[in-house]
Structure formats: C-alpha cells, structure tokens
C-alpha cells in the first residue's frame, strides 16, 4: 500500500485541499459570528443602531464564500521565521481560525507582497512560491518555484498562463492571482500621490486601477471611509462589465459613475455637432464662465441706512464698495462671498454701535445682517446666480457671450456655441452632454464641489479639458488614478498628451507609468493592430504581447451578396469554441447584422449584458467596444468602422480598439478594401 493510500494527507495536493476545506469552515464561522451579533443593547439611539446594522450587513457580505472563486491562490514559504509564521496562504481576503491565527492572508497585506515581486534575482527571503490551479472553486493542481535554489531555472508559470487565458464568460474578473511586478508597483503606490497609467490593449490597466482602489481601502480604510472613493468609466456598459471586481475582493463601498452622471444637473436631450462640442469642451470656456459669473457683481453707488428702533446707522457708499472689492479679490466662491457680504456690512454697523456706547453681541450682528435694507443692498450689488440660467444666457444671447468671450474665443467659435433657436427656459432647453459640463463648472464657481479621497478615471484619453476639470473637482483635496491609452482616443477632443490632461485635471505633478507588456491580446493580433499606430499615434510604443497563439488571426474577403451570411457563419464557428464571442461592427451595420443573426436563429446580447454559458454572443457597436473583451471576436468591415467617424484619425483609433478586443482569436471579414494603413 502506498503512503498516499494509507495516509491521504501525505499527498501534497490532498494536504492543500484539506487546508482549503478548513479555511472555508473558518470563513463560515467568521460569518456566523457576525450574523449572531446582538446590537440591541449596545447602541445609544436608533441612528447609531441603523448605522451599525448597515456596517454589520456589509461585513456579512464581505465574508461571503464565493463557491466558484478560489479562497486562496498562492502560498509563500519563507526561509527564516522573521514573520509571525513561516508559511502564508495568499488569498482575496483574510481568514483566521477560532484562536485568531491566520489561515489565509489578504493579498494586500505587506507579507503578501513577495508573492508578486519575488524573483530568482531578488527572492526576498522566500524559499518556495506555490501557485494553485482551480476548476470552479475546487483545487486541482499546484506549481512550485524554489526562488532560493540557484540550480532551478526560472520558467514561465503554466498555471499563471492558464489563468490569464481562461475563457471570459460573465463580467470582468479580478486579476489578483496574476498581478505582475510592474503592475503591483502601481497597485501599491501611496494614496497621497496621483498616478497616470498609459497602457495599450491587454496590459491590464483597468484591472490595475481597480486593484489599486482595493489596496488603498485596505491600507487607508478609516480615511477613505470618511472621504469616499469613486470609479469613473466611459459608459454604463463598461461599468456593468467591471462592477463585480471590487465586491469579489470584499470591497462594497465604492461608487461607480460616468462623467455624465457626475454633471447631471439638467436633463440631456440634445447633441452637439463635433465642432461645437470641441469648443464647449475647450479649457478656455472656464475663463468665459468665470467672467460671466463675476460680472453680476456691481459696486454700490448709494450709502446704506440701517434702522434699529429709534436709531439710524449709516454706512457710506465708499465703505460698501471697499467691502465688495475685498471679497472679489479673495480666492473664494461667488456664493461664499455673497453670504459673507451681509456679515461684513453688519460688522461695520456694530462698530458704529460700539462707538456710540452700545454693547451689541453676535445676535445683534445676525439681526442686522438679516435687515431688509442690508438684504436689498446685497441683492442689488451681489445677486444670486443660477448656473443653468447663466449657461443658457451664454448660449442664447450673442451680446452676453461676446462680452465675456472677448479675447478668448474667435468669432467663428462664438457662432458655433450659439443656439440657432434659443430655448425659453432651463427646463425646455435641449441640453447636450457638453452643456451639462459647462453648468457643472458654473456651479463650482458659485459653490465649491465636494472632494473625495480617491478617484479612479478609466478611459481617460477620451475626455475633453472641461471634463477633466469636472473630474478634478471631485478629487481636488484627494488623489487620483488615471488610466488610458492615447492610441484609443476616439473623440474629436481626445487628449494629445498626458501632461496636458493632468494639468486640466489639476494634478500636473502626477507620475506617468507605462505598461507595455500585453497579457490579453495574442501576439499575432496585436502586431496586426499596431500597424495603425504610426498613422494615428506616432511615437507611442506598441504593446509587446507575452502570449503566443498561432492561427489567432484570420482576414477574409467576402462578396457583397454573401457578406451578412458569412458574418453569421463566422459567429457560429466561433461559438464552437469555449468562451465569449463579440461581433463588432460599425454602428450603421448593427441593424442589418441583428436581422441576419435573428434570421439564422442566433440569440445575442447587447454590450453590458452579462454573458452566460447559454448565451455567449454579444453584438457590439464599434462605438461601445472600448474597455470590453471577448474570447473570440468577429470584426465586420473595418473600412466602415473608420468611415463612421468624423475624421480619419478618430476612425483609425476606433478600428484599433475593435481590433484589440480578442483574447483568443480574431476573424476579420470585409467586402470593401481594408484601410491602406493595415497593408
């Protein structure tokens, strides 16, 4: 009888499975302990009880044991017991036994860092690094690296490669088991600094940004609990795709939004021509708005008379004018200065009262500030400003716009801003997305925008300068993680450089990191897509894919009469493989392709809808493909994707995005000639 048969735990894999089982039991016990808490006698009032109850609910959710997710994915055996123990299992969250001893260490803990950073050249006191392979939630394999053994050659981990290449079905998943050293440096960078990550397709920049949020919440939980965190994505489909990453890591309190959500002060019902949107998004509009807001302040020309009882107190016009000038010279918001003015006037009256022998107190000062005569002066020289009405006036009245844009905007730019048919009111106006950003800027001039502790901005290359300013206001006293790829800028106002973008964001001192190692897109596919780089983003380094997948690219010409049938057949062929399928096409081609799929009996999803084992095909307009990924992609008519954009550079960038969504294979079908840049 073999040792394994007589003692199952003599088998290393059996021992690891036993530890997994024990860890799951310990996690279940931790959850049950929280569920059993009775808070009825420990809270002072119903408010405290409600807050504590919600915290307990969140803790219970964070301790959920996801059946198809590994509880731990790695193990570190240290050579010396400089830590509290010699062996550590690395997982998505901390798990301890009944005595409080750790069974699984959170991947964000300092002791876990060598799992990502240790190497043959720098073993960091690690004797053995073990990676685990899983099928669903069941441990099926392990792989060892003896980092301190000079006789063992350094090799690429098969389990790591398999995890990277695992089929994509469902929402985006975390990369906690596959974080690379250069990614880990960004993930663990300090909260106080803003980091900008330039990364081509498949370099993992989005996942790095989300994992950085999870790390910062671990390292600075109390601070960020007070100040808040926010993830900003390009559209709702993208946010739906990434929304499960942070909960899988046990983080539930991170808000997700688009830029449009942040500035949703009015209902957006209109759209701008590209040229108009570019002007509205230009940073110069900030100065136009500042002039327009502060133009409402007019120095008083008449003295003020305040009547209290039988006494009359006079404040001369020159003194009122000096108060107004002092407030306009200070670097404070329009609304804050307006609130300060009546108190300044009241103080001047109180000085006169004291000189006359009276002894007024704060209550008297507040009463004077609310005096009808004082309120009338404030209303006349410092009227309230409604941000939406202000922007409405700028877009409707040529003279008002010309006055405040003088020396800033050219005449043709001012004409582009003006509405052909001015709206009657804020409610009836057909506001565009760019208008909403202008209103947000005006609101901040009137009243300071609340700042968060940390903001993650993904697909940042597509923002206009005014949108950068809107995001920057949300982290003016905090930090940011900016993620993007200049080569994927597909808006007419896309940024030309990160230095430019970070200046508009208000973070010019941010560190720019570049990720050039690709882990998602096969080498053959990324090399083909990179042919476009010199024509749309010269000087940008191409991604070097670490993945060999021969035969991953197929380019085929089809006849006009068989084009739609050929696309459907290519989708059917892709569905024979495991994983998700994306059919990407120019927006104008979506309707006919949808009809062709339906006629052939193929059900399909829309971007943002979660793929399942039964429904794996998604029909994707090229305009919504950014940030998404599929195991196999069928790309319809590349020339139509380019032609669907207002200019060639933007069209080529849109095509670059579409070409780089595939994880395992890309099939390109075209009836018309391919863009010459792909030759």
Key structural traits:
disordered N terminus, globular, alpha/beta, 6-stranded mixed β-sheet, 41% helix, 679 residues
Tell me what the structure shows.
The protein is of the alpha/beta class and 679 residues long. Among the domains are: 12-155, no CATH class; 304-381, no CATH class; 523-678, Rossmann fold. 41% of the residues lie in helices and 16% in strands. It has 29 helices and 21 strands. It has a 6-stranded mixed sheet, sandwiched between helices. Strands 9-8-12-13-7-14 form a 6-stranded parallel sheet. Keywords: ATP-binding, Helicase, Hydrolase, Nucleotide-binding.
Assigned CATH superfamily of the domain at 523-678: P-loop containing nucleotide triphosphate hydrolases
- Helical content stands at 40-55%
In percent terms, what proportion of residues is strand? Answer: 15-25%
Total helical segments: 29
Overall CATH architecture of the domain at 523-678: 3-Layer(aba) Sandwich
Shape: globular
């Amino acid at each position: 009888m073999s040792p394994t048969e007589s003692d199952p735990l003599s088998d290393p894999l059996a021992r690891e499975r036993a530890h997994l089982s024990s860890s799951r039991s310990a996690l279940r016990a931790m959850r049950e302990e929280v569920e059993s808490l009775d808070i009825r006698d420990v809270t002072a009032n119903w408010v405290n009880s409600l807050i504590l109850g919600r915290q307990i609910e969140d803790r219970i959710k964070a301790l959920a044991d996801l059946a198809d997710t590994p509880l731990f994915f790695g193990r570190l055996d240290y050579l010396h017991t400089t830590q509290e123990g010699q062996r550590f299992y690395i997982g998505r969250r901390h798990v301890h036994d009944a005595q409080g001893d750790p069974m699984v260490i959170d991947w964000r803990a300092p002791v876990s860092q060598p799992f990502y950073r240790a190497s043959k050249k720098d073993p960091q006191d690690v004797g053995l690094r073990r990676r685990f392979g899983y099928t669903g939630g069941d441990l099926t394999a392990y792989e060892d690296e003896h980092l301190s053994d000079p006789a063992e050659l350094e090799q690429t981990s098969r389990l790591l490669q398999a995890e990277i290449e695992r089929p994509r079905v469902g929402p985006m998943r975390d990369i906690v088991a596959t974080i690379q050293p250069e990614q880990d440096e960004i993930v663990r960078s300090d909260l106080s600094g803003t980091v900008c990550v330039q990364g081509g397709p498949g370099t993992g920049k989005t996942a790095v940004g989300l994992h950085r949020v999870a790390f910062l919440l671990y390292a600075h939980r109390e601070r960020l609990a007070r100040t808040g965190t926010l993830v900003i994505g390009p559209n709702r489909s993208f946010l739906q795709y990434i929304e499960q990453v942070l909960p899988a890591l046990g983080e539930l309190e991170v808000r997700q939004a688009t830029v449009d959500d942040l500035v949703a002060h009015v209902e957006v019902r209109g759209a701008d021509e590209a040229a108009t949107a570019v002007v509205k998004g230009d940073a110069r509009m900030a100065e136009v708005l500042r002039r327009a807001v502060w133009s409402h302040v007019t120095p008083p020309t008449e003295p003020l008379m305040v009547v209290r009882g039988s006494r009359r107190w006079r404040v001369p016009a020159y003194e009122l004018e000096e108060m107004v000038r002092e407030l306009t010279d200070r670097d404070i918001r329009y609304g804050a200065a307006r609130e300060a003015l009546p108190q300044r006037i009241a103080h001047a009256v109180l000085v006169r009262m004291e000189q006359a022998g009276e002894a007024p107190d704060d209550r008297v000062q507040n009463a004077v500030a609310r005096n009808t005569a004082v309120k009338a002066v404030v209303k006349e020289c410092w009227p309230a400003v409604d941000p939406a009405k202000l922007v409405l006036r700028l877009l409707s009245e040529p003279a008002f716009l010309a006055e405040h844009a003088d020396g800033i905007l050219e005449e043709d730019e001012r004409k582009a801003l003006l509405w052909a048919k001015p709206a009657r009111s804020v409610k009836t106006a057909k506001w565009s997305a760019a208008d909403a950003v202008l209103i947000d800027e005006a609101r901040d001039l009137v009243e300071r925008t609340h700042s968060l502790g940390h903001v993650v901005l993904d697909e940042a290359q597509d923002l206009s300068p005014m949108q950068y300013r809107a995001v920057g206001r949300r982290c003016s006293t905090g930090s940011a993680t900016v993620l993007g790829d200049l080569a994927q800028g597909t808006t007419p106002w896309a940024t030309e450089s990160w230095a430019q973008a970070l200046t508009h964001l208000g973070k010019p001192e941010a560190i720019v990191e570049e990720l050039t190692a690709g882990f998602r897109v096969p080498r053959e596919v990324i090399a083909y897509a990179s042919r476009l780089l010199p024509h749309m983003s010269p000087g940008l380094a191409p991604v070097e894919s670490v993945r060999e997948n021969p035969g991953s690219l197929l380019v085929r010409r089809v006849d006009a009469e068989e084009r739609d049938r050929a696309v459907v057949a290519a989708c059917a062929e892709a569905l024979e493989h495991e994983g998700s399928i994306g059919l990407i096409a120019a927006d104008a081609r979506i309707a006919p392709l949808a009809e062709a799929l339906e006629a052939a009996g193929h059900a399909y999803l829309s971007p943002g809808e979660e793929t399942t084992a039964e429904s794996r095909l998604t029909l994707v307009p090229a305009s919504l493909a950014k940030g998404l990924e599929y195991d196999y992609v069928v790309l319809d008519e590349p020339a139509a994707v380019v032609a669907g954009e207002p200019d060639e550079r933007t069209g080529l960038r849109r095509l670059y995005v579409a070409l780089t969504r595939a994880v395992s294979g890309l099939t390109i079908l075209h009836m018309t000639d391919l863009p010459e840049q792909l030759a």
